Structure formats: C-alpha cells, structure tokens
Amino acid sequence: MTSSxxxxxxCCKRASLTHFYRLKREGEAHFGLPEIPTIQIxxxxxxxxxxxxxxxxxxxxxxxxxxxxxxxxQLTGNKTPIFFVHPGVGEVLIFVNxxxxxxxxxxxxxxxxxGFEPGHPFFTSMDEMVSCYAAAVKRTxxxxxxxxxxxxxxxxxxFEVAKRLEAMGDEVKFTGLINIPPHIADRMHxxxxxxxxxxxxxxxxxxxxxxxxxxxxxxxxxxxxEQLEVVWKLSPPERLLELQLTQEKLxxxxxxxxxxxxxxxxxxxxxxxxxxxxxxLQLYSLAxxxxxxxxTYSMLFHYVEARQIG
Length: 310
Prior knowledge:
Helix 1 crosses helix 4. The N terminus and C terminus are likely disordered. 35% of the residues are buried. By secondary structure, the protein is of the alpha/beta class. Strand 4, helix 7 and strand 5 form a beta-alpha-beta unit. The N and C termini lie far apart (57 Å). The chain has 3 domains: 56 residues, no CATH class; 154 residues, Alpha/Beta hydrolase fold, catalytic domain (Rossmann fold, 3-Layer(aba) Sandwich); 76 residues. The chain is 53% helix and 9% strand.
C-alpha cells in the first residue's frame, strides 16, 4: 500500500468528526501539503480514489472541478438512498455523524451549497438551486422512489426538490422537513450581514448563543472587517485550528450563507410532496437520532415537521 493509501486507510477506520479533522491535519503535515480540502476527502470515499487525489495534489496536477452538490457520506446498504439538504450555512459536515446511523441500511448523500470552491458562483434564486439539486439527485439515483430531507433552511429546499422530482414523473416516498416552518421569507428579510455572521459563528462553535445575541447591536455600526475581528478574538483558538479557519474564509462563508438567505426572501410554499403519513412517522424516528447528534454539538432541536403545505 502506498504512503497516501496507508494514511487514507487510517482516516477511514477512525471516521468520527474529531478524528477526521485531526487525521486531516496529520495527513497535511505528513505530505507537506498546505491543505487537503475536507470536502474532497468526503467526495472520495473509496481509498484508491482518495489516494489518487492526494497524489494529484502532490504532483500539482489538480484541475478545477465542475460543481457537484452531492457529497456521499455513507454508501452501504441496499434500501432507498436518502438525500439530505444542507442547512442555511450551506455546509454538510453536520451530517457526518448522522450518516453513520444508516450504515448497512441505506446510502446517505448530502447536498452542499454552491460557492465554497473558487470559480463557483453563488446561487441567485431558489428555482436555480432546486433545479441544480434535482438534477444532481437524478444523476446519483436515476430512478425512484426517492427519499429527500433537509435540516433547517434545507427543509424547504428538500420540499421543493421533492416537488420537482414528482413534476418530472418520479415517485417520492419520503419528504422530511426538520426544524423549519414552511414560511421562511419574513425571517430571511430579518437577517442582515451582522446577524448572518453571528449565526454562522454560533453554528461553528466560535461564540455562544448569548454572545451572538448580545453582540449584534454593538457590531452593526462597525465595518465587516472590524466585526470579524471582534468575533475572532472571542473564538477558542483550538476550534479555529480544528476548522482550519481564517478570517478570509469566515468572511467568504458568511457571503455563501447570505446568498442562500437572498434565495429564500421570495419563497412562498405551496403544493405537497411525498406521502404525508409515511413521511411523518419515518421522520419522527429519524429525528430522535438526529437530535442526539445535534445535542452533542450543543444545538437545540426545536421541533420536527413533515407535512403537506397548502
């Protein structure tokens, strides 16, 4: 086994999120690479594929990849795959541990927002996002039945993806909305840049919920750079190291989240998707496991909905 192959094998054996970040840093140190992108590790779940990717980094032979929202987090099992749409921050790492609950049962795919990688523009409308995600789901699973779910903001996106698949003549057996009301437009209009930055900082564990609430009035008169510097000083150094975060990356991430907020400002839910009774019961069971995961990250699970929207 090659040097890169041995490293990847170790990473796959110890795949908790904490170990994941630590082994990622160890790999970067071992190979002398400035960064092995987290998302590329997840997108190359086969050891040989990831080893080849690392070898391409070492040979500086990497090329810009076309955007693909699909991130495979768990590929075992022969039941209907489940597709989980990102929350309002656009990233999918929150689902890494959740996906392990589905091992040997069904594949688990996450959908990641556009804009994280250089050259990938942000989404500009809900329709554009939904069209992109529906096409990606069908590339991954050409035929139904489909199972689509989303956490927080991703819940309404999942609902629209399910409707789009049904409009294309496909069967959607399960549609799940977690921790999100059907009407989000008013809330999207309430979130300004400062609010979005503080929400993301809380989500990432950089500040407490109380800090996020208390800081907003003080930060709003400041420039973006000054606001980021305040949050940076409050952030635990070990957490910044774990996330390999810089102020520039955080600033860009806030813009990604902001683009998703813009997409939701005119959103008006209508219609239905999936089988209502089945969706409700299955999501209630799923939510128990998701709650355990989210509580581990000190996140509050407010409520669960899987409903027809009229």
